[in-house]
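Incident log, structure service

09:12 report received: a user says their structure output differs between two submissions of the same chain.
09:20 pulled the input from the user's history:
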Amino acid sequence: MHYQVTVRYGGARQRYHTLVVEADDATTALRAAADAVPADLAPHVDLVELRIAVHPDSRTYMDDPTAP
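09:34 re-ran on a clean worker, output below:
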């Protein structure tokens, strides 16, 4: 399963680093994300968000008349 991970860093001037990891579960995805965060960002991270990454072709949009 693919997970999207967003890392917030930068203190007063917040910035975001986003990555996608593949893992069997959320715990494994968090471990993979921790290993993938650039070392220079790690000391400045204050928030990590983990979501299941939705394949772009399976997304639905409000204005899409074919959406269920």
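09:41 both user submissions now match this output. Likely a transient worker issue. Closing.
09:42 reviewer note: The chain has one helix and three strands. The longest helix spans residues 26-36.
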